[in-house]
Amino acid sequence: EGQYNGIIPSMGRSMINTYNTHAFILYKRGTKDLVDRITMVKDKNFIILQPDDEDYMSEVRETEFYKEVMQEQAYIDAYKEKTGLPWLSYYPRPVPMLHMWSADSIGQEHLVEITENGHPIQLTLKVISVKPRVFYIAGLLVPNEIDHIISLSKDKVHRSAVGNAKHGGFLTQTRTSKTAWITRHESPTM
């Protein structure tokens, strides 16, 4: 039973947002041959499905893909051991491009001075959460920038799908949100 959720290709990756206790039943494509049943548990967000066939598995272990996945798993485990928290980002994590402001206490403020089109601008970053680190930035966008973003997104907003979009994402009654993706390259304002 259950709801079809897409295809996970062999030696491939798939990601899905889900919740604790949500169960996934995996079958070989086009059959009712059970591969695995996975029930999501708190702080376990990286699952590797390995073939039962030891001969095939010995071939898989030699691939670069498998070695990279195992390196990622080792990193995730070490991060959890060191911080006590699950790794929730991409691996390998890119080198930070921007300064990371401290968030030592709620209400803490940082004055940031930047230049935009030759004009100095001052912004105040106010800490509204320490963990996760969240800042409130008053006046970050002016009304015409907000209107521009809304106009760029109007024709792109669509119902959010479930499953792997590359392999047949689909609509359900359990996910009813709407989504629009806008890249920073779509206009100079972005």
Would you mind describing this structure in some detail?
The protein is α+β, with helices and mostly antiparallel strands. It contains three helices and seven strands; from the N terminus they run E-E-H-H-E-E-E-H-E-E. The chain has helices spanning 54-60, 64-83, 143-153; strands at residues 23-27, 34-39, 109-116, 119-129, 134-137, 158-159, 178-179. The strands form three sheets. A three-stranded antiparallel beta sheet has the order 3-4-5, with no helix packed on it. A two-stranded antiparallel ribbon has the order 1-2. The chain has a two-stranded antiparallel ribbon with strand order 6-7. Strand 1 (23-27) and strand 2 form a beta hairpin. It is extended. The chain starts with 22 loop residues before the first strand and ends in an 11-residue tail after the last strand. The mean pLDDT is 87.
